Amino acid sequence: MNRKPTPPRLLLRFFKWFCHPSLHVYIEGDLLELYQERVEKAGKRKADWRFALDVLLLFRPSIIKPLEGYNQLNHYGMFRHNLLITYRSILRNKTSFFINLVGLSTSLACALLIYFWVNDELSVDKFHEKDNRLYQVMRNWETSNNVLTFEGTPGRLAYSLVEEMPEVEMAIADRPSFNNKGILSTEKKQIKASERYVSQDFFNIFSYNLIHGNNNEAFSDKYAVVLSDELALKLFNTTADIIGKTIEWDHGDFSGSYLISGVFKTPPSNSSMQFDILFSYELFLEKRPEFLNWDNSNPATYVLLKEDTDIDLFNKKIAGFVKSKLPTSKSTLFLRQYSDQYLYGTYENGIQTGGRITYVKLFSIVATFILIIACINFMNLSTARASRRLKEIGIKKAIGAKRKTLIIQFLSESIAMAFLSLTVSFLLILILLPQFHYISGKQLTLTFDASLILSVLGFVVFIGFLSGSYPALYYSGFRPTAILKEKLLTSTGELWIRKGLVIFQFTVSVILISSVFIVSKQLSFIQKKNLGYNKDNIIYFTNEGKVLEGLEIFLAEIKKISGVVHASNFANDLTGKHGSTSGLNWEGKNPDESISFGNLEVGYDLIELLEIEVVAGRTFSSQFNSERSKIIFNESAVKAMGLENPVGKTVKLWGEDRQIIGIVKDFHFESLYKEIRPCFLQLYPISNQTLVRIKVGTETETLTQLQKFYQEYNQGLPFDYQFLDQDYQALYAAEKRVSTLSQYFAGIAILISCLGLLGLAAFASERRTKEISIRKILGSSIWRIIGLLSIDFAKMVLVAILIAMPVSFVILKRWLENFSYRINMEWWIFALAGLVAIIIAFVTISSQSIKAALSNPVDALKNE
Asked: What is the secondary structure of 596-607 as a DSSP string?
């Protein structure tokens, strides 16, 4: 009868000397059985060496005092021990360590950058002390098939609300200068400045700090102005002792001498209002009395409600306020909280449907998903690698390690990894911040207050805990005998969880890839769409100084410059900044009907300059007399008015007769978010900006000549110009940033997902090394082995694509609904996104599969 092999007496004594007495039963039982199995597999000499090496590596006397036993370890010793084990684990698993470090640090850097961006967006206009009572009056206009929403309101609305609505504590009107700047001058200096025309209570409603002057008396004189501190410093080199001084203002009808009545602190960067100088709204109404009519709309109206006012009841009360003044009006008023205007600016059919808040939510969700993808990688790789450390777990449990101790070890490893990633993420932020400023269009300030630091640290601990929780709780619960006898098999549940997490990763990646394609295609569509006018090679600049003294002469001289095709003047722009009115009447008009018309004030030759098609009649011409009494409509206006053969007919605008001399083809005078609506063009020979079309191919030479001529004509003033197509592009700046950021985020998400896939593929190849070697010896080709290793991952990616396609379709369809003119979402776009994901995944998996397939089977089997 053969005796079973036993470990050397010295090894048994070492165990008894090292371990707690309560563990001796394992030495005499389970460990003895384990040793016997090892002898059968590898021979006695090899079994002795491996068994002794495991114990010596795990329990060095320099780390753990032998007489204290594993469970008697003090906290300092435990910390050092876990740190050492973490360090050894990193050295043994360099690939997974690199993948986790890159994935976590990149995702944390992205999340923090997005946090700063989102925080900046959410802070806009939130600094006003009376924010909870401060509202903007909005106006809905009913058309035959839609409801349009405007910020512009009748010019006298603010006065009437204060007088007639007891719930209103204060109300002001505000008329900005849009894109144009005037010239402010003293005896020694000339500076361009942007102005606003505001009511008396402006500083009582808004929290713009008036550092010199009195809130209640700033606009007591309608020829008084209030300067920003930055503008005052530029003009006078001081902000003190300038009240009462006189300055000259040069800006169209508002040119003249003004008295300084106050100095305010320049609005902060998180204010949606940015201005250099404030004028009295009373002055604006004096120069533009037509805005006193209830059928005209242009200024914005802001109200401060009294405490405890029920906003819903008040909205019902003021809904028909304009109709009570003008029975034919189709305007309905409602209030929107002022601080919501920046984030919630999009309305569809009279209902608030989004705005910039959509992108705030989108980026927040994307940042969350990127973090989740990185955590999934961490969990997957931690779980996979933990399964390779079962021997370590079994021996530790056999010599007395409690489950709690093993859980702490696994969690401390993952938390340490998370903190290391956080450190690297801060370095990445410092590197990427300038580029992020450029992409986002913001100059973000990285302020780490106590709450943010605690939140970040808490989140990192949570990530580490979440990522290490599964291997910590799952593997630490196994019995040591099962582990050491190698009787554990990977559970079906564990495999499904791991596969599910990979599917989730690639689902998010495919959605982001689809988003990149759709957003880019929509922006390309916007850029290439026929707008009804030609915006290329057109510059514009503000009319100021000597130009305003003789604009017709100035334009005539510009037209003589070689390379200038056309030159004209324009009081508005083509991005939606214009007035509107319903004060138009014509023969056959339904008395109960009210149509809102866009009001465009143009100069001679502007229609020719913009190359707007004339479908009937003619354009304004200096060869005819009394052109100020003429009017031109677009096709939508003629259709809405129900006129046939309108050229030559007469309409009444604000009570004055206007003869229709022409009809132009519909063109986009607002953004593509809105459908083309009725508008008319009236002649204003003197207006605040000049447009010049330059001959293609002569841009540089012509601009040089224009600059030289302008500086000679308008001495002392710089030639500041912009291209018209830049204004058009600025309308969609947010979408462009979304497109660019989507590309970056999609790339990061794909990178992190592929890193995780790479790690899992490497792990799978490592576990199947022996199988691969045997298959190669039996004649399997390299491509067959590559297919064998890749098929499982390919299935997961295909499932992810099938899930992502309908989800991305719904998300992107809702985004495209913000545009009145949009692309069609075709199936091949989503198929292409899926194909890109498959190619990327295949390249990632193949790198490990090919490496395994090309390995020498002899080396792999020898190691076994």
From this structure: -EEEEEE-TTHH
3-class DSSP state of 483: helix
Sign of CA dihedral 492, 493, 494, 500: positive
CB distance 156 to 297 below 8 Å = no
CA nearest to 526, candidates 755, 137, 820: 820
Smallest CA-to-CA distance from 680 within 638, 720, 708 is with 638
- Strands (E) in 182-327, as ranges, are 182-185, 190-193, 195-198, 210-212, 224-228, 246-250, 256-264, 277-280, 296-297, 300-305
- What does the angle CA 501 – CA 506 – CA 509 come to, to the nearest 5 degrees? 135
Cα angle: 816, vertex 820, 821; to 5 degrees:
80
Q: Coil, strand or helix: which one is 575?
A: coil
CA distances in angstroms from 796 to 507, 734, 747, 752, listed in the order given: 10, 35, 20, 16
Amino acid symbol at 219: F
Within 8 A by CB and 6+ apart from 580, the residues are 150, 152, 296, 297, 298, 596, 597, 598, 599
Give per-residue pLDDT as tens, 562-602. 899 989 888 877 776 777 787 888 888 887 777 888 888 88
Sign of CA dihedral 553, 556, 562, 567: positive
CA distance 154 to 778: 88
Residues 499-556 have pLDDT tens digits of: 777 788 788 888 888 888 887 788 777 767 778 888 888 888 888 777 877 888 888 8
Q: Where are the alpha helices (H) located in 621-718, listed in sequence order?
A: 635-641, 699-713
The angle formed by the CA atoms of residues 657, 679 and 723, to the nearest 5 degrees, is 120
CB-CB contact of 498 with 687 (8 Å) = no
> What's the pTM?
0.70
